[in-house]
Specification:
This protein is of the alpha/beta class. It has a single domain, classed as OB fold (Dihydrolipoamide Acetyltransferase, E2P) (Beta Barrel). The chain contains 2 helices and 6 strands; from the N terminus they run αβαβββββ. The chain has helices at residues 2-17, 47-59, and strands spanning 40-41, 68-80, 85-93, 100-107, 122-133, 138-149. It has a 5-stranded mixed barrel. Strand 5 and strand 6 (138-149) form a beta hairpin. Helix 1 (2-17) runs antiparallel to helix 2 (47-59). The longest helix is centred in the N-terminal third of the chain and has 16 residues, at 2-17. It is globular, with a radius of gyration of 15 Å.
Length: 151
C-alpha cells in the first residue's frame, strides 16, 4: 500500500500547485560548465519529468547513489539542531519556478563558497548524490557540491 502512496501524493501535489498547463514555457535555466560531467541533468526537464525523476530518486535511492546529479532550484538554509550548525539546501521548484515541490536536497561543499547566494535565489547545483537514512526519514544530499546562481 505504501508503495502506491508516493505516486498518488506526487500527483496531488502537482495538480494542486498551479493551474498552468504543463506545456507552459518554464523558466530558462542557463547551461553551465563544470569540470565533472553530470550523470543526470535535471535542469532541462519540464514539471512532469522533474517530479517523476525526484520521486524516483526518493523511492529507488540505490539507483542514484554516488551519481553526479545537476539540478536547478532555489537556495535555502535551515538550522541543524542536532549538530548546532547550518544546513544549506537546494529547494526544488516546479518547472515554472512558481511553487516549491516539497523536495529539498542538502548541499555539502568541499569548502564553504565565498559568496553564498541569497535566500530564495535561483541556483543550479551539481554534486555526488548521497542518502542520509536517519531514524525518521531519508535526506537526499549532494556531496562535493558546486553552485551557480542565475536570474
Amino acid at each position: 500500500m505504501r508503495r502506491f502512496m508516493i505516486p498518488v501524493l506526487t500527483a496531488v501535489l502537482l495538480t494542486g500547485c498551479s493551474a498552468k498547463a504543463d506545456t507552459a514555457a518554464h523558466k530558462e535555466v542557463p547551461q553551465i560548465e563544470s569540470s565533472v560531467p553530470a550523470d543526470l541533468d535535471l535542469t532541462y526537464m519540464n514539471e512532469t519529468e522533474l517530479m517523476s525523476e525526484v520521486t524516483d530518486m526518493m523511492v529507488h535511492p540505490d539507483d542514484y547513489q554516488d551519481k553526479v546529479i545537476r539540478l536547478a532550484g532555489t537556495f535555502g538554509v535551515q538550522q541543524d539542531v542536532q549538530n548546532k550548525g547550518i544546513i544549506y539546501n537546494c529547494d526544488i521548484t516546479d518547472g515554472d519556478g512558481c511553487c516549491p515541490t516539497g523536495s529539498s536536497i542538502q548541499l555539502f561543499f568541499e569548502a564553504e563558497p565565498e559568496n553564498l547566494p541569497n535566500l530564495g535565489e535561483n541556483i543550479i547545483v551539481q554534486g555526488v548524490m548521497n542518502y542520509d537514512k536517519g531514524s525518521y526519514y531519508m535526506n537526499m544530499q549532494l556531496l562535493h557540491a558546486e553552485i551557480w546562481t542565475y536570474d
